[in-house]
Amino acid sequence: MTNHFDSKSGEQNIAQGDGATGKTINVTHTVNGDGNISSGTGNVTVNQGIPHEVFAQYVKELGATEQVVEGFFGTLLKEKVPRDQWDSKLREIAATYKELLARVGDDQAAKQAIEAGDYAKAEALLEDVANQHSLAAAKAHADNARLQRIQLRYAKAAAYWQKAAALLPEDKKKDRSLYLNNAGYDLYRITHCAEALPLFEHSLVIRQEIGDKAGEGRILNNISQVYSARGDYDTTLKYLEQSLRISQELVDKTGEGAILGNIGVIHHAKGEYAVALKYLEQSLRISQETGDRAGEGVTLNNISQIYKARSEYFTSLKYLEQSLRISQELGDKKQEGVTLNNIATTAYTNGDYPAVLKYLEQSLVISQEIGNRAGEAVTSWNIGHAYAMQGDLAKAEQYMSRAVQLAEEIGHPKLKEWRKALKAVRAKIKAQ
């Protein structure tokens, strides 16, 4: 069997509003191919038919009523959001929902419609306001953009942000820049990069005109992510380096640490491991100095992947174990799953199948606890494959059968491939 490694990054470091710095890009590695270890999600997700205790926990954490949270889940299903993104999307929707309620203020009719989940009525009420004078109209369009975000309608949100920017009075340049940046951001996250770029660039010009260095640094970073998505790493680095200089000028240690980490990830993508390590180590020091435990955990994970690429598996595992401890300490199930996945794939590459099993079994427990049947299917399959590689075909068949059963129930894309491999394992058992 052949091994093929795929690497993927976590959330892009995109800044939206004023004061936002975004998140450090998180590198994860998975193993695919020919019945080998498949890509595990490791993300916090919930199923349709969410267990009561999981639903209750979300109601508590999101700070919304049961009716509102039910509406959030309805949006995820309607928009066919992949289950491994449900946790992050729920939190994103809840944050925008709270912001929107605060902003509609005295417009009780719109507020009541939003709280009741009647978004069509709320949109119509806000449109009525938008037909009034320009400043009120701009704010109403901006609120409608946030309303679209709650429903994950990013293209429509971007259109409202642009309407809002066009209606602002001339003296509201900072707000215009913010709305253009937000339009670019919403287009970026539905991969409309060609449309997002000019909006970011226009927003950047305004920030430079008004001398807003902090805003300029954030938008330079956002532009870098468009070029990163295109695979144009040299241009990505050009913008990141400009953003880094501004963070250093402003003594913005949090922003500096995030950007240093992102520069390291881009050098990693280019195969420039020594340079990548230099930037990631600087980012790690800043996270430790500022007490940013989440950022520290992500950076430790990213450093581990440099050593893994160099085939220094022992050192890679050392960093991954530190990252794992932090995610567990913070109760960050999503990051814990990513790190467990990376530990398992590093151990797999090193031929350490007992370690592969140890970490995949922990990952399986997490998937089962949070009701993530897709994650449970993938992890069950991976465990089965690890047993097969050790020659324990009976246990391999047990876990592979469970994976196929789950795949049939949820319509997993690997179903055909897994059925074929399971058939081969059963044939080997019969021939013994």
Please tell me what the overall shape is. globular
The main sheet comes to: 2 strands, antiparallel
* Computed structural class: mainly alpha
Number of distinct helices:
20
Major beta sheet, strand line-up: 1-2
- The overall pLDDT, averaged over residues, is 84
Q: What is Rg?
A: 23 Å
The low-pLDDT segments are: 1-13, 18-23, 28-48
Give the amount of beta strand, in percent.
under 5%
H/E element string?
EEHHHHHHHHHHHHHHHHHHHH
The total strand number stands at 2
| Head-to-tail CA distance between termini | 21 Å
Please estimate the helix content: over 70%
Descriptive notes:
The chain has 432 residues and is an all-alpha fold. Helix content is 74%, strand content 3%. It contains 20 helices and two strands. It has a two-stranded antiparallel sheet. Helix 2 packs across helix 3 and helix 19 packs antiparallel against helix 20. The longest helix has 19 residues. It is globular and about 80 Å long. The N terminus is likely disordered.
